[in-house]
Amino acid sequence: MKNVLITGAAGFLGSHLCDRFIKEGYKVIGMDNFITGDKKNLQHLAHHPHFEFIEHDVTQYIKIDGDLDYILHFASPASPIDYLKIPIQTLKVGSLGTHNLLGLAKAKQARILIASTSEVYGDPLVHPQTEDYYGNVNTIGPRGVYDEAKRFQESITMAYHRFHGLETRIVRIFNTYGPRMRLNDGRVIPAFMGQALRGEDLTIFGDGSQTRSFCYVNDQVEGIYRLLLSDYAEPVNIGNPHEISIKDFAEEIIKLTGTSQKVIYKDLPVNDPMQRQPDITLAKKLLGWEPKVGRAEGMKITFDYFKNLTTEELYKSEHKDFSGYINK
Ligand code: NAD
Ligand code: UDP
């Protein structure tokens, strides 16, 4: 039985990855410090014989007994609001945390996959984004704490690959959604769905002409799984290329949820990327991968998940009106 360590295991993507690796017959060690995660996401694995959980902050030295075959480093705040609230932790988990995990991978002779992001392209001047685009990032802007941590993460990972011969993989994840996202994490899908469920107006930032391309979580996990098992060390985009403006997306959510609320407009956050769409030519060629779940199907499953949350969860308003916060 192969052993895999997954950091960020109590988060949205990390918990789905734990499920996938358990299903594939691995022994999974999940690690998290719960800074943006939730114990609830792993509850169903608590007594699974092939699952172990370690509560730990990966920016501190990491000790694991026994062998490891694979490491997936997914620990990091991922929502713009989260990383604005905890900017230093965001920089540390992408830099110090990644360094610790690369050191652990080297010691255990394990292959490591790190979660990078479309944010390494910043507010992109190339569209759609190909892996060879260097990006357009404001190092000192509010999003710089996340973008630069992720860019450093890619650099140190390639350095361990080139200098130490470590087996490394880098996935550049584009906006991914699905059940187990935190309703109040501030990202656009939970934000709109939460607003619809509470009978509030949907807050569009800016004029809503900015675009995103949303990937359903099962497709993302499949892409990550294939990339890990591939022999390709350079970054690979994984996302759904179906692009939509935020304004049109808000209309889709209004239809899906049946809310009688309207949209209202708030300030656009500083350095909010104006367009984002992955070019997935490389993933198709290398991994034979492309997304299978359309937005209508994925959004319905996600809305069903949010609908079933408790009233307490629905009204837990960490980021009720964060449009002012984000531009501080
Ligand atoms: P999430 O916030 O749901 O999960 C992140 C998890 O990491 C949380 O459980 C959190 O508690 C944990 N964590 C943070 N700092 C930690 C630390 N120092 N030590 C241990 N655990 C720590 O976010 P997510 O959407 O699941 O994102 C997971 C990863 O994927 C992140 O690295 C993120 O940058 C990357 N990513 C996600 C998306 C997306 O659309 N979901 C897009 C691009 C990149
Ligand atoms: N957004 C919005 N209203 C919200 C939350 C987000 O209009 O209530 C916009 C945000 O400004 C961005 C897009 O939706 O243009 C996606 O934001 P998200 O926070 O999901 O992630 P990002 O793709 O910016 O990392």
Helices and strands, in order, run as EHEEEHHEHEEHEEEHEEHEHHHH
The global form is globular
Using the coordinates shown, work out and report the CATH topology of the domain at 3-175 and 215-238. Rossmann fold
Q: Which sequence of strands runs across the widest sheet? A: 3-2-1-4-5-6-11
* Fraction in helix: 25-40%
Would you identify the regions where 5 or more consecutive residues have pLDDT less than 50? 319-328
Bound molecules: nicotinamide-adenine-dinucleotide, uridine-5'-diphosphate
Summing up helix and strand content along with how strands pair, one would put the structural category as: alpha/beta
Largest sheet features: 7 strands, parallel
Distance between the termini: 50 Å
Second-tier CATH architecture of the domain at 3-175 and 215-238:
3-Layer(aba) Sandwich
Kindly provide the name of the CATH class of the domain at 3-175 and 215-238. Alpha Beta
Number of helices: 11
Q: Please give the radius of gyration in angstroms.
A: 19 Å
Q: Would you tell me the overall average pLDDT? A: 95
Which range does the strand content fall in? 15-25%
Q: Report the strand count.
A: 13
